[in-house]
Amino acid sequence: MILYSGRSAYYVNQKGALMVEWNHHRIERPYRAGEGGEADHAGLSATLLRLIREEPMHDRTILDVGCGSGRLTFALAKEVGRVIGIDRANEAIERARQHAAALRLDHVTFHCLDAEAIDYRDLGPISFVVANLCMSDGILRRAAAVLSPGHVIAFAAFHLDQWKESGKISQYAYGEGQVETALSEAGLKPVYLGVEREVLSLATPDEGLAYLEAAGLTGKWKADGRWQGFVTYLQGGGRELTVRARVIVKARRC
Known about the structure:
It is a single chain. The chain has 254 residues and is α/β, with parallel strands linked by helices. It has 2 domains: 44-195 and 243-253, Rossmann fold, CATH 3.40.50.150; 203-238. The chain has helices spanning 38-41, 46-53, 71-76, 90-102, 137-146, 176-186, 205-214, 218-224, 226-235; strands at residues 2-5, 8-12, 18-20, 23-30, 61-65, 82-87, 108-112, 128-132, 152-158, 188-201, 240-253. The strands form 2 sheets. The protein has an 8-stranded mixed β-sheet, with helices on both faces. Strands 1-2-3 form a 3-stranded antiparallel β-sheet, with no helix packed on it. The longest helix has 13 residues, at 90-102. The chain is globular and about 55 Å long. The two termini are 23 Å apart. The relative contact order is 0.18.
């Protein structure tokens, strides 16, 4: 059942909860010779940035979960009162610290911490949680615990369709139903739910393998079995590669 209120659409899920209607966006384009690399499949979602920037930030303390070397942190740094970035990769945190120091961003700090093990309340008052491609049910629960009612979490996570042509699904990927359940169990009410997909059309199997090589994925996929799965898909006539599939979510603490 779908309900409408103004411009927003809602529906009642199988558990009887009122949910925001999902927004689905799909881009299909042909493979271009030589393309590949991190920028093609790990960049920031414009939708995620818009959802974050809709909120007042100049006097807020934002926690960037799984910040890596600070891609999302630095995109927001000039607009926010304070940013705390956490990641368990010490090398990435050191790069982020050096970059912040070079830019003289005294209100930006980075800590080498495991986002799925710590209590976010130990970091001090947090009024906004963000994350780019670092999400789990445990992170949602920890975010909900540190946020006051009405405060927001906004994040991008892998969707189940990411690299689906390889025949393997990431353990960190979410489907729509899984997102709804995780938000509900964490005490978070969705404001925006979306899925963004970008799919390459391949004229030949060689184009798909060339993309993996340019993206630096060939060795990794051979090691974990995805390469053979993708080759089998191509040999069976498959001519697509889902290079980006993201769940984009914004939710408020109940």
